[in-house]
Amino acid sequence: MTDILYDFGMVGLGVMGRNLLLNMADHGFAVAGLDLDPLKATALEAEADKGKTVKGTTSAQEFISALSKPRALMLLVPAGKAVDAAIASLLPYLEPGDIVIDGGNSYFPDTDRRVVALAEQGIHFFGMGISGGEKGARFGPSMMPGGDKQAYERLRPVFEAVAAKVNGEPCVTYLGNGSAGNYVKMVHNGIEYGIMQLIAETYDLLKRGLGRSDDELQRIFTEWNRSEVQSFLIEITGEILQKTDEVTGQRLVNVISDRARQKGTGKWTSQNAMDLQVPLPTIDMAVTMRDISAYKDERVEAAKKLRGSVNADDQTEDWYSIENRIRNAFYFAMLTTYAQGLVQLRIASLAYNYGLQLQEVAKIWRGGCIIRAACLEDIRQAFEKEPNLPNLLLDPTIGNELLQRQEDIRAIVKLAVDKGIPVPGLMASLAYFDAYRSETLPTNLIQAQRDYFGAHTYERIDQPGIFHTQWS
């Protein structure tokens, strides 16, 4: 390399790493990239605009020595062992005060472990979730960093410059201590799972349940993106439904396998929520439905033997009315999905001492990220007015949106049941709403059952204390 000192370094020059580094270069930062593949290192320089200070290398020592101190560098490599291997390869050349950022989807306990291990050597470790895909990385992602607050000041000018902007505000902020950044990204991905499942259910109900054509489906989702449900995921759904397959001439979505894959972040969200005793029924169901999709051969056999009552010809309402009701049902469920994820963040912040500010989380999710949506501004305002709001459903604005649409989601769930179309995400969202608004739940009977067979005791409503009864 030359005598130039580079502002920021990137380890891992795949699509995400390369695009994010080029984004930084476009904003005037001198950047260096490290990759074991020499083709990726040279491709970085070739893709940079003329006049930008960009350098690629395959040498860890050369890479580290070229960075200005205190050094700031990011890892964008696969989560797990690859992160530890990358850290180990860099450690001999790092010095106290340097900052290492993990920009991948690492499991938050791994981040906590790395924070402690590197702190012993005087090195700051950040876990930072990045959302927006390859296009977002290139032109403006949402970024969720967590770690040492003072060290973040070294990173802030770079991150605020390259992040997506909403009303001139960057979609990045310091979130909290330790693994706060990776944890927020994990829950972001759980919400993403939930909303994707809800969109898939509405698509299935419209297509298989009500017989809408491919052209009609594309029109519906495109129009929806100009309504209150406007979001990135609704937007791309309209674009996906328009794409034609070059091989068959059919709509491409119709020739894609229905075996859904997953990388685990949705599962991590559900698993940790169970540890924290936070109910996430919509997200849990989204994970479950991806699992069910993998049993394709069994589903094909079951379709022959377990006949349902799907009737695409039964039209009980005019098209415009039923489409509106389905959109309202989706919006109801989408809002409750955000609510579930944000409750998890609130409880986790207390449990893990993150110090999260939920209005700030909602603020940086408004742009750049996969779950960006128009409703996030209302969500941000809800937590700005009441930072200690225990559940988004209790906000007057959000609560009113749900009340206005509850009859629609009830009607749509009934319609889906009658037609044999599975809508577990919509059902779970409605059940969450109904359970949360129930002053009394039948869990008193469960407590009695537990005491009957296991002497687990119970509490009474008329006097304090713990009780046990000899039931027989």
Fold topology:
Layout: E1 8-11, H1 15-26, E2 31-34, H2 38-47, E3 54-57, H3 60-65, E4 72-75, H4 81-90, E5 99-102, H5 108-119, E6 124-131, H6 133-139, E7 142-146, H7 149-162, E8 165-166, E9 169-170, H8 180-209, H9 214-224, H10 232-240, H11 265-276, H12 281-293, H13 296-305, H14 319-352, H15 358-365, H16 375-385, H17 396-419, H18 424-436, H19 443-454
Parallel strand pairs: 1-2, 1-4, 2-3, 4-5, 5-6
Antiparallel strand pairs: 6-7, 8-9
Helix pairs in contact: 1-6, 8-11, 8-12, 8-14, 9-10, 11-12, 12-18, 14-17, 14-18, 15-16
Count the helices. How many? 19
Q: What are the low-pLDDT stretches, counting only 5+ consecutive residues below 50?
A: none
Strand content: 5-15%
Q: Would you tell me the structural class of the helices and strands?
A: alpha/beta
Mean pLDDT rating: 93
The major β-sheet equals:
7 strands, mixed
Named at the architecture level, the CATH assignment of the largest domain is Orthogonal Bundle
Number of domains: 3
Quaternary structure of the protein: single chain
Biggest sheet strand order reads 3-2-1-4-5-6-7
Helix content: 40-55%
In CATH, the homologous superfamily of the largest domain goes by the name N-(1-d-carboxylethyl)-l-norvaline Dehydrogenase, domain 2
Q: What is the C-level CATH assignment of the largest domain?
A: Mainly Alpha
Q: Can you write the helix and strand succession as a string? A: EHEHEHEHEHEHEHEEHHHHHHHHHHHH
Instruction: Give the overall shape.
Output: globular
Report what the structure shows.
The protein has helices at residues 15-26, 38-47, 60-65, 81-90, 108-119, 133-139, 149-162, 180-209, 214-224, 232-240, 265-276, 281-293, 296-305, 319-352, 358-365, 375-385, 396-419, 424-436, 443-454, and strands spanning 8-11, 31-34, 54-57, 72-75, 99-102, 124-131, 142-146, 165-166, 169-170. The chain is of the alpha/beta class. The strands form 2 sheets. Strands 3-2-1-4-5-6-7 form a 7-stranded mixed sheet, sandwiched between helices. Helix 1 links the parallel strand 1 and strand 2 (31-34). Helix 9 packs antiparallel against helix 10 (232-240). The longest helix is centred in the C-terminal third of the chain and has 34 residues, at 319-352. It is globular.
